[in-house]
Write a structure and sequence with these properties.
The complex is a heterodimer of chains A (106) and B (263).
Chain A: E1 4-7, E2 11-12, E3 17-24, E4 46-53, E5 56-62, E6 72-78, E7 83-91, E8 96-105
Parallel strand pairs in A: 2-8
Antiparallel strand pairs in A: 1-3, 3-6, 4-5, 4-7, 7-8
Chain B: H1 2-21, H2 42-49, H3 56-67, H4 78-82, H5 85-88, E1 98-100, E2 105-107, H6 109-120, H7 131-142, H8 158-169, H9 179-183, E3 190-191, E4 194-195, E5 206-208, E6 213-215, H10 217-227, H11 238-250, E7 261-262
Parallel strand pairs in B: 5-7
Antiparallel strand pairs in B: 1-2, 3-4, 5-6
Helix pairs in contact in B: 3-7, 6-7, 8-11
Classes of the chains: A mainly beta (106), B mainly alpha (263).
Chain lengths: 106, 263
């Protein structure tokens, strides 16, 4: 069960700088921790977040074991036209989640 | 840990002195009560205030999915009896822990959810402090966000509040500390760099940054009890529920913040 929270302004004026905030639920297990019996807890992290606007990649981040659980990533872009942002998180053990949000540019 | 222990030991004579002359009525006056929120830095407050940056909201989303999922041999979801969570669970968390007539003692929200699973869904109870129970509890509690805490004050619950209060006021453990020595007498000071705060449980389950996850009030209490170096109780223990109950009476009338973010 994975949930995502996306914050994209619903409306913007053309040329506005807008902030996009994303929050993804994930344990982000570093792979450096041990159980009480000494066994390593295997690494289980999100390794990348990609954002596409109308099919075109506008932002990508690589994530590493030092990232906290439930990674929060925010970035800025310029609103040019109305359309749909698509987000994709990829991680260990076949983890793959998507989410989307639309914007109306006046 | 040694460093922290030294600080606690050094501060003991001070704490003891303060507690001694005020041991009869040390509770914080109603007007001076402050949510843990007011002790936090601006960044952590901003994180709690925005539902798209508050990681506790992920638990609310998961909890809502669990609310509507059919489970157990009765093949019923929470929604099948209670209706839509967002509408019908308003104000419920504000009056917990509440008295359960069949058990003859108060139960907290987590225990109520598990009692429902056993009694009405014919399902196994969810393990305490694991994701599913935390998510469901957070979802239910979030429906009371902003509503004033109004703990059960039926006569049958009074003795349990008194027991919880006794635990809070009673010096115990290797450090001979009572909860009150910090949270009533020294809440405006800092312990090893962290704010001591007033023990007002108005945001549970909380998303604690140190834990990197949601956690229940009992997890927080067990943390403190370990720090006091006294006998700890397991999750689900009636003693912890009594303490929760007393703490909720301290917070009477204060708005619920669930899911609160705490450092």
């Amino acid at each position: 069960m994975a949930s995502a929270l996306i914050n994209v302004p619903k409306k913007a004026k053309s040329g506005d700088i807008i902030e996009i905030k994303t929050l993804m639920s994930h344990i982000m297990e570093t792979g450096y921790r041990h159980t009480t019996s000494g066994k390593i807890v295997p690494r289980d992290i999100i390794t990348s977040l990609t954002c596409r606007f109308e099919g075109e990649e506008i932002f990508r981040a690589d994530l590493f074991p030092a990232t906290a659980a439930n990674p929060f990533v925010s970035f800025f872009t310029i609103a040019t036209k109305s359309g749909k942002f698509e987000f994709e998180w990829i991680g260990d053990n076949g983890f793959s989640e998507t989410a989307s949000a639309s914007i109306t540019v006046e | 840990m040694k460093f922290v222990a030294t600080i606690i030991l050094l501060s003991l004579p001070i704490a003891a002195g303060v507690a001694f002359h005020s041991s009869i009525a040390t509770e914080i006056p109603s007007a001076e009560r402050r949510s843990g929120y007011t002790f936090m830095g601006p960044e952590t407050r901003a994180m709690q205030d925005d539902d798209t940056t508050n990681p506790g909201m992920l638990g609310v989303l998961d909890g809502e999915a669990l609310w509507n999922r059919k489970v157990g041999s009765a093949d019923k979801s929470c929604a099948d009896c209670h209706g839509e969570g967002k509408r019908d669970m308003k104000g419920v968390a504000a009056r917990y822990p509440a008295f359960d007539k069949a058990l003859g003692r108060p139960v907290n929200l987590e225990q109520r959810i598990n009692l429902c699973r056993v009694r009405h869904q014919d399902a196994t109870p969810l393990p305490y402090e694991r994701h599913d129970l935390l998510a469901l509890t957070t979802f239910v509690a979030e429906q009371s966000r902003g509503m004033p805490i109004a703990p059960d004050n039926s006569p049958e619950i009074e003795p349990f509040i008194a027991k919880g209060r006794d635990f809070f006021m009673h010096r115990q453990g290797q450090l001979n500390l009572a909860c009150a020595n910090c949270h009533d007498d020294n809440w405006d000071k800092r312990l090893a760099g962290s704010a001591v705060t007033q023990a007002i449980p108005n945001g549970y389950p909380i998303y604690r940054l140190e834990w990197q996850s949601l956690g229940s009030l009992q997890r927080r209490l067990r943390n403190c009890i370990t720090g006091m170096r006294t006998l700890n109780y397991g999750f689900d223990a009636p003693e912890l529920v009594e303490l929760e109950l007393y703490l909720m009476t301290r917070a009477r009338g204060m708005p619920i913040e669930t899911p609160a973010v705490r450092p």
